[in-house]
Structure formats: structure tokens, C-alpha cells
Amino acid sequence: MTKFYELSRQERLQSLVKAGYLAAASADFLQAKPALADEILTAITENDVGQFVLPYGVGANFLIDNQPYYVPMVTEEPSVIAAASNGAQRIAQGGGFQTVVVNHLILAQVILTGVTQFTDLRLRLQAVDRQIFQVAATAHPSMVKRGGGLRSWQVTAVGADQAKISLWLDPQAAFGANFANTVAEAVGNFVQTQVLQGAEQVLAAILSNSGAKMTVTIRAEVPWRALATTTNSGTTVAARIAQLNQFAQQDPERASTENKGILNGVFAAALATGNDLRAISAATTAWLIEHQQLVLSRWQNLSAKQVLQGELTLPLPIGQVGGAINSLPTATISHELLGHPTVEQLMCIIASVGLANNLAALRSLVTTGIQAGHMRLQAANLAILAGATPVEIEPLTILLNQEQQVDLARAQLILKQLRQQKR
Does residue 231 sit in the same domain as residue 329? Predict the structure, then answer.
């Protein structure tokens, strides 16, 4: 049976349509590769002069909460999708990814200055608790109508004369940045006019990108047999993966690289679904600092069950509607490909891609090394860099993959020889 990655692009699209993942119209759209209309470009960016195109692919073999998925991924790095599919395939042998917990609340802050009597301020705010909820609801009634809105608030002293009001908001299916800012400003105006006294002032009112309560935890168990190589038993590989992960938990230089490997997949899936990579990056940094943790994932070798267990907790400030999700046709197709998941399901899917990439990278590192597979997948890019024309890319790539070691000079020499043979 031909593997998914061995199919042509058209054959992959046809198989996704046949399996019910994509509508025929969506497959036609992807096949045609149409450019964004000028009206859309003008609406979603500033000073537009053109389009910057990135490859759009799918990660295969994902089984998440007992549901199979092809996960859309946008990345210029072929090894990211290959690794995600590889890791997902091994995890599927142990039952796939399982959601442990998921939260989706966005934080907004009203920042106060000139606070000299914090206890008195807190009592004054508590006295208007009901009004704060009413102001928040009035600021964005459509969100309340959809079931969202302000869930809780707290006031906290910060430094000698400052404080913050933390507003925890349910944005429903959206990421909720505009919603959070609207509510924060409304509550800030109310507090300024109705609560604050003397030198107390609202300094700013805005969302926070901490992602503290917009998090997902997923878990996977990989049977030892699924980790074996031709030269290493699954038992040995599992033990070495756990050891390398434990090292990362104590060494910031290794941890940064392991986290980058996780975010390779997370960013690719988030971008494909129209979500904000900057928000995810900021939230990840804040989460690691707050939890005094170096690496996002944790792998344990469970001898009694003969499995390697992985767990990933990740802040994921994302949405299932709004922003670029509704504006970009390919982002809309990504949600179709995933079966139009809820925002909580989408968080689990994106986190699963991160853990799959993490597993594949760790397994390569403790067995064959990362570079052999990486360079094999980079051969096509090297062919392009060497000057291959579109019709020369595939034959040159095949020849490059037959080489033990290759660089640009060698690629250019092989291309020259290939052209001479055709004369």
C-alpha cells in the first residue's frame, strides 16, 4: 500500500476528499493555489505590496481522544511535518493522545497607580462587585449572549504604590483579544469614576498575553516496541529518551532546544489554523517563568507497563473563530480538514502536534542522530539552492540522497554532471 507521503499532491487531496476530510471544492481551491484578492490584503494588513507564500502540508497518523486526524501545518521545514507524522504514528500504537485538562479563559488587566491604602481599595472594589460584572456584560453583550463573559476578578498589590485588577474572561470560541480589551477599558472607566480616590489613577487597561488559564495538558503512552530501531531495543530507546528529557529539565541550554522542537509543530499547526504565533510565544515564555520550569514536556519510562509516557502542558491562547481565521480561505479549509473542532479540541490537536514532534526528535537524538534524516529531507532545498530548474529538482534530489555526505559545492557538481548527461 502506498504511504501518504509517497503520493503526489493531487493524489493526497483526492484521498482526503474520498475519506471525508475535505470537500471537493476545498481540494480544488488548494490545487489551484489562488492568490488572495487585493481587497482581502488591504483589509488584513498595512502597506501591502504582495504576498509571502509558505508551504501548506498535513501531519498524518494522529489519533487524539480516539479521533483520527490529518493535521494542517504551515512550515518551510519538511522535517517538521515528517517528524510530526512519525511521532504520531508511534504514539497511535499506544492508543494515541489523551486530553488531561483544558482551560480557555483570557486575562485582562486594569493597572492602577497612586495606591497608598491597598486594603481600603480592595474593600471599595468588593463593595461594587455586582456593578463590575454588570459593566463587563454591558461592554460586550454579544459575547454574553453566546455564553461568555466575565467569570471572576481579583485585585492584587504590585510594588509600593501600584495594583492590578485581574479580569478572567470566557471568550467562547474566540481567542478574545478585542473582547478582553473592550471589557478592560469599560471596567477601567467605571473604576476610575466610581471607585478610585485621591491620587489613585487607572494607568492602563489591556489584555494580558500570559495565557495562565488558557492551557492544555495532553498525555501519551508509547509502547517500547514502537521505539525500537534496527540496532537499539525499544527498552533502551525509551530509557535514553527519558534520560535526555531529564537532562533538559536541569539544563537551560538543552531545554531551549527541546522547547524549540515542540514549538516547531505547535507553530506550524497554529499558523495553518489562522492563529497568532506571537501570542503563543509570549504565553509560553510567561508560563515557563511563572512555573520555574525549563522544558515544556516530561517523559517518564514506566517499566511496569513497558511504555514511555509523555506529558505536555502548554499555554495556547488561540481561537476557533475571529481574526485571520475568518479572513484567510486556507485557514478556513484547515478547520474543515479538522472537522470544525471546538476551541478546546483545537487546543488539544495543536498540543498533540508539539508532543509528536518532541518524541520524534528525542528518538532520533538518542539513536541515529538528528542530522541524517534532516539532511535527507533538506536535499530538495539544496537542489534549488544549487540552481536546479523545476524539472531538475526531483532527479537531483534523488541523486543527492544517494550521497553519504553532501554540501552546496557537491550539489552543484552533481547538477552539472546531470546536465551533461542530457546533452
Answer: yes
Q: Just list the catalytic residues.
A: 77, 260, 276, 374
What burial class does residue 373 get, using C-beta atoms within 10 Å of its C-beta: 0-12 exposed, 13-18 middle, 19+ buried? middle
Contact 169, 185 (CB under 8 A): no
The candidate with the shortest Cα–Cα distance to 183, out of 149, 157, 208, 212, is: 149
User: What pLDDT, on a 0 to 100 scale, did the predictor assign at position 87?
Assistant: 97
How confident is the model at residue 396, as a pLDDT?
Answer: 78
Distance, in Å, from the CA atom of 287 to the CA atom of 214, rounded to the nearest integer, reads: 11
The pLDDT value given to residue 378: 67
| Residue in 93, 38, 19, 36 with CA at minimum distance from that of residue 63 | 93
CATH for 178: 3.30.70.420
Bridge partners, 36 (sequence order): none
Question: How far is it, in rounded angstroms, from Cα 383 to Cα 377?
Answer: 11
- Residue 148's φ and ψ, nearest 5 degrees, are -95, -165
* 380: containing domain: 374-421
Per-residue model confidence (pLDDT) at position 155: 98
Has residue 2 been placed in a domain?
no
The confidence score (pLDDT) of residue 315 equals 96
261 and 194 housed in the same domain: no
Q: What integer pLDDT is reported at residue 370 of this predicted model?
A: 60
Decide if 25 is inside a domain: no
pLDDT score at 377: 59
Residue numbers in the chain where pLDDT is lower than 50: none
Question: What's the pLDDT at 350?
Answer: 98
